[in-house]
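Hi R.,

Here's the chain you asked about this morning:
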Amino acid sequence: MEDASADTEMTPRPTKRRLVHSDLDPPEHFQSPSSSRSNASSELESHHSGRLSPTKQLAALEDREDPIVYYDFATTKARVPDDVQNLRVAAQSLSDGVGILGCTNDEMAHLTEVAGGLDIGERSRFTYPWVNDIGKRRKIGRTPSLAEVQRLVAAAVTCEEGRSHEGTWNEEVHLAALRAALASSAYAESLAVRSAKTAAIDPKSLASEALPKRVVDYAIVLIPDEMISRAWKKLRPLQGAGIKSWNHTTTNDLRSTPIASNIETKAPNKSWTDGKAQLAIWTAALHKRLSMLQQPGHVPDRIPAMPLLIAQGHEWHLLIVSCQPQASDDAAGSETIIWQKIDMGSLPSYMS
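And the predicted structure, written out as tokens:
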């Protein structure tokens, strides 16, 4: 049984919204909300006093002039963009175990010998012909050692058997897995994991709705290189916030490092679907901030697809976020689509 103190470490439900009247930024940065958007916002607001279920809150987001929607990849309501498809195919290949090992014959023989202590179900997966592909694996990074993976599996099993609360899962399993993945990545020098547990959308005009401070748990960020550092010097402060930020938050840990991916984590007995509306608003605010970085007077580039990771206990899932023109002929503007979902693997499995 989880004690009461554990609840304080869970992602909280939205608190009752306070209406904040702030100065709007110039038209080229922020547009004034229309009456229909206000209606959708008032629908969302009622959720904070308990009158809207998570399902109805999502429906309210879909009804906006600039909708935020969740779609399955098989939907006929919108075309899946090429960059989303490319990211999906690459992720699915990894999920299927294609080329996740990059071992020479001698290394493979040693790994098979060391893996002899695993149960037969796991041990047999090392023999699949599509698993070992040196060229493919080395493009994405080194193969983690079996000892590294064993430590993660043991931590996950301990949390599961001990019915650990979300905070323990975060520190012992989820954060450890993210750091191990980055350490073995070909992009280890360019990426980092940052906590987003205290991050809030700032300025509030980037969001259609007030959110609790803790919406996502972690973010994968770009470590500033020379080009990003030069651009940072020229970046103007966010109007309405008063300080610079690449992102939709001015939290010190995140403002100077562009977010590449957001990660939401949950303990096994907690459903992430109740937080889908929060995630939708959070990711849409990030897209809105990124659109503000476009050069004035230039034809705006489409914001590239971005991955969104969900870790629920052992299980890891990938969603992909895109911002694209609305499919309806009589609708103007864009919509934020969260494409769901690819099952990336489970920590008790050594080959996921």
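The chain has a mean pLDDT of 80.

Let me know if you need anything else.
M.
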